[in-house]
Every structure is written in C-alpha cells, then in structure tokens.
Design goal:
159 residues, 63% helix, 0% strand, respiratory chain, NDUFB10, membrane, transport, mitochondrion
C-alpha cells in the first residue's frame, strides 16, 4: 500500500503492518523492476524455440551426450507432430458437429488432410512403442527405405 494512493490510516495496527510490508516489499520490487525485467529476453511463451541438435545418425557411437540430445529432440518432434494430428482431428470433429446433415461433403477435405497426416505420422512413429527413442526410429526408417528400394513405395507420402 503506497501512502500516496490512499488517505492515511488511523488504525495503528494497519499502519504498522503497512510499514512492515513496505519495508520488505520495496527492495524486492525495486530489484525486480530495475534489474531483472530489463535484462530478460522478451518473447511470448508459446514461441519458445529450441535449437536443433544433431540427429542420431550424425552422432558418434560413443557420444552419450549427443545421443541424449538427439533423443530429447526426437521426443519434442514427436510431441509436436502428435499435437498437429490432434488439432487436425479436432477440426474434423468440429466440422462434423457444425455441418451435421451434409458433413460428409463439407468436411471431406478436412478428413483427407487428417488421414494423410495420420498416415505420415504412422510411417514415422508408428509401431515404436511407448519407450521409443531416436535410434529405434532411425532403424525403422532405415528398414523402411530398404524395403521400399526392393518393393516400391509404401505410400504416396514416401515417394
């Protein structure tokens, strides 16, 4: 409570508590406003960008730190791709709800986009299990590429 904003308080206890509060709060507020906030990077929380790290195929076999960073990057990428798939599904479901009688024709482009994204997600992350890591995904990609070289493309997304 700043004294300039309010009339002086006649209650002695409230005045004492206000003085104690200002004694503790004033230095903390000053440090926050004059030192911490001017030195902070300003960016919206939803635009945080992590630097891209080397993928698992660029790491040496004995480089544990590179493996760890590649696994974290893989998990972030999988979470982003899963969220994109979730948003596409929710858009299709909302379209079905709002366009109820003729949703089969109106929502068809959304359905096709969702199915294409789902297929691409499954090609990249499917059948890896809950404890997937970058090395398993890399091996899956390698085996898929060998199979496609022998038998032709799996889908139009892998041409």
């Amino acid at each position: 409570m700043v004294q300039g904003d309010h009339p002086p308080d006649d209650n002695v206890f409230r005045a004492f508590m206000s003085a104690v509060y200002n004694t503790i709060d004033a230095p903390v507020t000053w440090v926050r406003e004059k030192i911490v906030e001017p030195n902070q990077k300003k960016y919206p929380w939803y635009h945080r960008q992590f630097r891209r790290v080397p993928t698992i195929d660029q790491c040496y076999t004995d480089d544990v730190l590179c493996d760890f960073e590649a696994n974290l990057q893989f998990k972030r990428d999988r979470a982003v791709d899963s969220e994109i798939l979730n948003i596409l599904r929710m858009r299709y479901e909302d379209c079905m709800l709002y366009e109820s009688p003729e949703h089969l024709t109106v929502c068809k482009p959304l359905w096709e986009k969702y199915k294409a994204a789902e297929e691409a997600w499954f090609i990249k992350y499917g059948d890896l299990g809950a404890y997937a890591d970058a090395r398993k995904a890399y091996m899956k990609q390698k085996h898929r590429m060998i199979w496609e070289r022998r038998n032709g493309p799996l889908s139009e997304h892998t041409k």
